[in-house]
Amino acid sequence: MTMRLCRFLLLQVALKWSYNAVKASLCLGGSDIFASVAENSPMGHVVANISINGYPAAAAVRLCLNGKDADWFFLEDRTVRLNSSDVRVLDREVLGTILIAELTCYENNIRQCQYRILVEILNENDNKPSFLNETIQPVTISELTAVDSVVINVKAQDEDGDAISYIIDQSSPDASFFRIDLPNSGNVLLNKPLDYETKATLRLNIWAMEANSVEKYNITAALTVNIADGDDQYPRFLPCTPLAPGVPACASPTYSANITETQEGTVLEFSPGPVRAEDGDRGLNTAVVYTILSGDDQGRFAIDNQTGDIRLTRAVGDKGQSANFQLTVMASQLDDWLKYSVASVLVRVLRNNKFPPVFRATTYKGFVVQSSSSAAIVSSYGNRVLVLHAYDQDFSDGVNPNIRYSIRPPAIDRLFHITQSGVLIARADQLQASSRSVLQVIARDEESGEEVSASVDVEVLQQGQAVPGGTFMMDSFFMDVDIKLVGFIAIVVLLLFLCALLFLFLRTAGKQPQPDVAEAESPGKRREVTSGQTAFKRSSFGDMSTHEYESSASFHGRHGIYTRRQSYLPPPSTSSTFVIMDREDNCDSPSGPFPVLEDFQAEKDELEADEGNHGGAGLTDLGHSKPEENN
After folding, report:
1. CB distance 230 to 251 below 8 Å
2. Which residue of 49, 148, 413, 578 pairs with 547 in a disulfide if CB–CB is 3.0 to 4.6 A?
3. What is the pLDDT of residue 512?
4. pLDDT tens digit string along 54-85?
5. Collapsing DSSP states into helix, strand and coil, what is residue 424?
6. Residue 179 burial by CB count (10 A; 0-12/13-18/19+): exposed, middle or buried?
7. Are 609 and 562 in contact (CB under 8 A)?
8. Quick check: 275 and 345 in contact, CB under 8 A?
9. What is the helix, strand, coil percentage profile of the chain, to 5?
10. Burial 184-221 (b: 16+ CB within 10 A, else e)
């Protein structure tokens, strides 16, 4: 009985198992799914087909997807499709390389079998390289960094796994300072020495590019390299004059100052000034110390070793008026005495300046012949070299060595140049014939600062043209004459002219002729004597009366006209006589070279007798004055 019951049970189990086996055959025939799909594949992309005996549409069979990546798939009949969208992109770099899911088959809600789904995401070159942010930050390196040293190491990555190569953009401002020897390494090397004083910041661009892709995607990064100052420069005196463009080394200036003979105990003011030096390494700015190496004249000059101020400790009167002092000053780094620079200091002792410089003329005239020469000397109209010289009476020879000449306005400086000896040079190839140029020449005493100017009128002649005369010759004659001397000469000439006029006036007044009528008086008588050609002129010589006589004389008496015949003067006598004289002759006595009137005594007696008969008083001299009688 028991045996039958066991057999019955076994039979039932066998029947039931056989029934289930026949019934589950619809989920059989399948297998694990291994597939691949490219990233960025679209929605509904077929991943794989399901190979089972049953048809999922049958009511007895049901397929289900589960697993961690099951949501990336969906089933359509016996097909597994990709579940993506525009906002949900299949990205290998995000999801990884494998999608894992499970496919479970149910028959009559009883799980019959389960299959694995493994989908590889195929890579596509859909990403550009990108630099690691920490490798492209600004860096600081010393200016003393050796050439060929690695100064930067840049890194870029490509999520698609492509190899990256690095290239320096040669259009970068400072690309010449760097190089990359191994393109795949990202090591940037220093290509040439650095100098903080010349350039404290360098900039360059680096490209990161895919090396093994068709697309060759790339990206660039801007790098900044800051240069740290190193102690590689010497102190330099200010103002700094570079030896050449782009060269950090400076030429030390020459400081100059003027003092008087009695000046002492003062801090000197220099030009340029003050005397200052600074560390050539501006970033370090190490303190400097000042020292007078030579020329202090036994302590006459003292320097403040911290400020560089130079003090005159005692007067220089004992050195004479022409004494100058040449000092050598050293500035060295406080922390390194081997780093130093020197400068020259000139101290001038000023003369007693009483007179300013002067030109001998306010205007000079000259000419130059147009030619193809770039330099032609301007000549005066006397065919001599035109030399402009400013005289200074403070010097015995009138030559002040401190005078410097210049031309104004500056615009005309390209056409004319004046040497320090006063010779005017013209650019004859840039001048036009028959033109004139008026320029101003300035003479400046560099010691006292006094200036004097003169105008120069330059005429441009054509080749072969004769040098004009006239006014220009006169101008050249007076060109070198001192203005004061000209004024003095003009005054002297004027005085001489006035004296000559006065002399001529007095001489003319002294030659005025006397009246042609003379008087001869005698007591009780008066006779008028007239004549067309006869005249008696009285001249007194001491106590003696002398008369000039001309022939054809007529005497008017009371009884008519008495005419005397032509006669010669009789010999001189001691009595009153009438003589012929030249008023210009100087006669000491009546017995001069002229003869006395012939028969004059007889006529006189006759006339007196006639007057006596008429009660006259005597012979009258032409109705004016009575002649004096000799004692």
Report:
1. no
2. 578
3. 57
4. 665 555 778 888 888 999 999 888 889 999 98
5. strand
6. middle
7. no
8. yes
9. 15, 35, 50
10. eebbbbbeeebbbbeeeebebbbbbbbeeeeeebebeb
Per DSSP (E only), the strands in 211-295 are: 218-228, 236-238, 241-242, 250-251, 254-259, 266-267, 276-278, 288-294
Query: What is the token pair recorded at 296?
Result: 């202090």
In the structure encoding, which two tokens stand for residue 582, read together? Answer: 């030249």
Distances (CA, A) of 302 to 223, 289, 349: 52, 14, 17
Question: pLDDT digit string (tens) for 415-431?
Answer: 888 998 899 988 888 88
Nearest residue to 113 via CA among 14, 18, 31: 31
What tokens appear for 55 in the block? 């048809």
For residues 126 and 164, which has the higher predicted lDDT (pLDDT)? 164
Q: Which of 334-338, 514-518, 526-530 has the highest mean pLDDT?
A: 334-338
Cα–Cα distance for residue pair 499/507, rounded to 1 Å:
12
Angstrom distance (rounded) from CA 580 to CA 594: 6
Tell me the C-alpha distance between 383 and 386, whole Å.
Answer: 9
d(CA 566, CA 598): 9
HSE (side-chain half, CA atoms, 13 Å) at 560: 2
Tokens representing 353? Answer: 């300046």
Given a contact cutoff of 8 angstroms between Cβ atoms, the answer to whether 12 and 57 are in contact is no
Alpha-carbon 7 to chain mean position: 129
Q: Which two tokens stand for residue 145?
A: 């960094």
Mean pLDDT of 299-314: 94
66-67-71 Cα angle (round to 5) = 70
Distance (Å, whole) CA 262 – CA 421: 33
Identify whether the C-beta of residue 329 lies closer than 8 Å to the C-beta of residue 292. Answer: yes
The band of 489, judged by pLDDT with boundaries at 50, 70 and 90, is: confident
CA nearest neighbour of 77 among 44, 110, 116, 37: 44
pLDDT(11) > 90? no
Backbone dihedral angles phi then psi of residue 334, each to the nearest 5 degrees: -65, -35
Q: Quick one: 149 exposed, middle or buried, by C-beta within 10 A (0-12, 13-18, 19+)?
A: exposed
For residue 413, pLDDT beyond 50 = yes
Note if the bond before 239 is cis, omega within 30 degrees: yes
Give the 3-state secondary structure of 35-96. EEEECCCCCCCEEEECCCCCCCCCCCEEEEEECCCHHHEEEECCEEEECCCCCCCCCHHHHC
**Backbone Cα Rg of the chain:** 68
User: What average pLDDT does the chain have?
Assistant: 77
Kindly tell me if the per-residue pLDDT of 591 is higher than 90. no
Would you give the DSSP letter of residue 185?
T
Q: What is the pLDDT of residues 102-114, one digit of tens each?
A: 988 888 888 888 8
Report residue 581's pLDDT band, with 50, 70 and 90 as the boundaries: very low
- What is the pLDDT, as a whole number, of residue 177? 96
Question: Residues in the chain, how many?
Answer: 631
Query: Which one, of 516, 573, 508, 570, lies nearest residue 548 by Cα?
Result: 516
Q: Count other C-beta atoms under 10 Å from residue 76's C-beta.
A: 10
